[in-house]
Amino acid sequence: MLHIWLSGDPRPAPRPRVSNRRAYYPAWYEAQKAAWALEAQQQVSESGGAFSNGERLAVLFKIRRATHRTADCDNLSKAVADAINGVGWHDDAQIDDWRVVLPGTVSTRMCPGYCRLRGIT
Tell me: the pLDDT tens digits for 60-79? Predict the structure, then answer.
């Protein structure tokens, strides 16, 4: 089992934008992903490494937000999963069991992006 704690107040994954026939994401989203990927990489290396390509996974996302603004839980968890792609697992297509919990309490003291992963073979 692998636990990854990510800091900051997560924002939902936006839809890609298209310009000159090229899809891209807003700069704030790329910065959020890069910061989380770095945090996740440090934690994964300390815990013994990532899950291998082809290994099936069950993931529980516990996401706490410091704001009461509404957001789709699938877009919030997708933002976390995008950041961990290539770090905690090869690709989020490995996830067979994807669960999201948005606790009702709002707290800035808790790390908002938490994933618990386990291999299901």
Answer: 888 877 776 777 788 888 88
Q: What is the model's pTM?
A: 0.74
Cα dihedral angle (86, 93, 14, 111), rounded to 10 degrees?
-60
> What are the respective helix, strand and coil percentages of the chain, to the nearest 5?
30, 30, 45
Domains and CATH numbers, the chain: 2-14+23-119 (3.30.1330.70)
The closest alpha carbon to 10, from 79, 98, 57, belongs to 79
Amino acid, res. 120: I
In angstroms, the Cα distances linking 76 to 10, 19, 29, 60, 82 are 7, 24, 12, 13, 10
DSSP 62-119: EE--SS-----HHHHHHHHHHHHBTTTBS-GGGEEEEEEE--SS--SSS-SEEEEEEE
